[in-house]
Amino acid sequence: MNRTPIFAAVRHLLARPLIEADVRALDTAIDAALELPSPLAVGPQGVALVRRFEGLAKVRADGMVEAYPDPGTGGDPWTIGWGATGPGIGPGTVWTRAQCDARLEADLARHAEEVAEAIGDAPTSQQQFDALVSFHYNTGAIARATLTRRHIAGDYEGAAEEFSRWVYAGRKVMRGLVRRREAEAGLYGGRD
């Protein structure tokens, strides 16, 4: 990285030449800024949790996987594989197991990035992160959930309680969502 423009800007702001101590302090600050942690990735517990609750439904006798309607609405969004939804997935969509696995990997990476962005630099254990990724994978709500705000504020007990609010589909409590949120809250709180 060319640091000359940075040093020139600081010299201009200070209206004086930089001394050796200034240069060392700037170098240290620039180095620290460049050592930003890489985005968190979902860990094995998070992957297992998503796989457990999403399941690989509608596997045909020939090993191919069919799309199915949302259990809460009986229609959209149509789902295939490990909970994949989106454009091109609807009645009649069929994938191989390899396609399902590849999509899960890509979707988990995208959801992990979105969780990392939503929580910023809030202290987060791997278990908390994995639980948040599972929650977001299922709800898409990490950016707007009170759960996220409580986590960022360091209210981990309050955040863990928020999972239980996300158990509705089609205005009905879904037993599968109740079990999933209990598992996510348990992982989040380190009780998995």
From TrEMBL:
Task: Check the record and name the Pfam families matching this protein.
Answer: Phage_lysozyme
Query: Matching InterPro entries, A to Z?
Result: Bacteriophage_GH24, Endolysin_autolysin, Endolysin_T4_type, Glyco_hydro_24, Lysozyme-like_dom_sf, Lysozyme_dom_sf
Keywords attached to this Swiss-Prot or TrEMBL record, sorted alphabetically, are: Antimicrobial, Bacteriolytic enzyme, Glycosidase, Host cytoplasm, Hydrolase
Which named protein is this? Answer: Lysozyme
Give the family per the record: Belongs to the glycosyl hydrolase 24 family.
The keyword Hydrolase appears for this protein? yes
Q: Does the keyword Ubl conjugation apply?
A: no
Q: Which HAMAP family match?
A: ENDOLYSIN_T4
Q: What EC numbers are recorded for this enzyme?
A: 3.2.1.17
Catalysed reaction(s) here are: Hydrolysis of (1->4)-beta-linkages between N-acetylmuramic acid and N-acetyl-D-glucosamine residues in a peptidoglycan and between N-acetyl-D-glucosamine residues in chitodextrins
